[in-house]
Amino acid sequence: YRHKGCRLPGIFAVIAVALTLGLVPLSAVTLENLRGLTESGFEENLGQVKQDILFLTRRQGQRIEFRQAALTVVWKSGDRLQWFFPAGPGRPTAAGEDPDPRRSHYYRGSDQAVPNVRHFRKLRYKQLAENAELLFYDSGNLLEYDLILPPGAKPAAFRMRLVGHSELAAEPDGSLTIRIGNRTVRQRKPVAYQIVAGVRTEVACRFAPGQDSVGFETGPYDPRLPLIIDPVLEFSTYLGGNGEDVITSVASDSAGNIYVGGFTASAASQPFPVNANAMDPAYGGGYDAFLTKLNS
User: Fold this and answer.
1) Which residues contact 62 (CB under 8 A, 6 or more apart)?
2) How many whole angstroms separate alpha carbon 231 and alpha carbon 267?
3) How far apart are CA 161 and CA 268, in angstroms?
4) How far apart are CA 52 and CA 69, in angstroms?
5) Backbone angles phi, psi at 149, to 5 degrees
6) Mapping DSSP to helix (H, G, I), strand (E, B) and coil, where does residue 294 land?
7) Which residues are CB-neighbours of 18 under 8 A, at least 6 positions away?
8) Could you give the CA distance from residue 124 to residue 104 in angstroms, rounded to a whole number?
9) Cα(207)–Cα(168) distance, integer angstroms
């Protein structure tokens, strides 16, 4: 089982416990998604969180809430980034796919039990603009989604609106960076393709960002066939430990590597992540400076 949280405000205990049946594998942290291992898959909402949230997934340091036609990334610091999906003429729907055998049980006092909460490995939105679908899933330790456009749909008409960011820009390597204060969310260069006579055929594709929205521009393709656009979300702010971690500088090079500098107060119990080649891998107390290179 997993204990999801316990607070003791004064002498009154407010306890939230989640028991998960089955084993949760722990894998090595990758440079592409530092400290970003999904803990819960896509968890349905049966009343354990706000009513307008349909599904949620928890990652270390943040929570991602999926609503009717939107998702919200919420960091422990209170920072928020909202994505709004363009709706079609009908009511957008979201449904979990590929069920996980785990179940969670929430208890908040003797009369507030939410048992048997299911988890899914995939989450699919339907009835969006252009009759498109969005399929969210985990690829390794990365949150990935496919934009699935049916025959005749126009990719340029599918634009997602963002709220909560300070900067939105396409990078020379084709990726998209989204700044939220000192945080950065990065989407890799999108890959687009069609299945033509049973063969995967690549289609040129790039991000088309505006001030508060992002869409896609594609090269020639067969409009009689479905078109799949496949970006990957990388949350670079997973870099950190269990204490205060502050990023003061971010830079990149021509190869797409990212350099992050700042200071950390993360202690030995869950330290700031370093590798075997670090100049000083041990936490020295107080605040330690760091300079980290993230491979492209």
Assistant:
1) 73, 74, 75, 76, 235, 237
2) 35
3) 40
4) 11
5) -105, 125
6) strand
7) 1, 2, 3, 4, 104, 105, 106, 117
8) 21
9) 11
Q: Residue 81's closest CA among 136, 162, 181, 144? A: 162
* Separation between Cα atoms, residue 143 and residue 276, nearest integer Å: 27
Quick one: tokens of 113?
């039990």
| pTM for the model | 0.68
Give the SS3 label for residue 157: helix
Q: What is the pLDDT of residues 158-210, one digit of tens each?
A: 999 999 999 999 999 899 999 988 788 888 899 999 999 999 999 999 999 99
Separation CA 200–CA 291 (nearest Å): 41
Whether residue 150 contacts residue 221, with contact meaning beta carbons closer than 8 Å, is answered with no
Spatial distance between the Cα atoms of 30 and 36, rounded to a whole number of angstroms:
8
Tokens of 143: 């949150």
Taking the C-alpha atoms of residue 13 and residue 30, their distance in angstroms, rounded to an integer, is 37
DSSP string, 168-226: EEE-TTS-EEEEETTEEEEEPPPEEEEEETTEEEEE-EEEEE-SSEEEEEE----TTS-
Q: What angle do CA 289, 292, 296 make, to 5 degrees?
A: 165
Q: Which residues have a Cβ under 8 Å from the Cβ of 89 and sit 6 or more positions away?
A: none
For the stretch 56-108, pLDDT in tens is 988 767 889 999 999 999 988 888 999 999 999 889 999 999 998 888 888 87
In whole angstroms, give the CA distance from residue 54 to residue 51.
8
CB 249 within 8 A of CB 260: yes
pLDDT digits 0-9 by tens, 207-228: 999 999 999 999 999 999 999 9
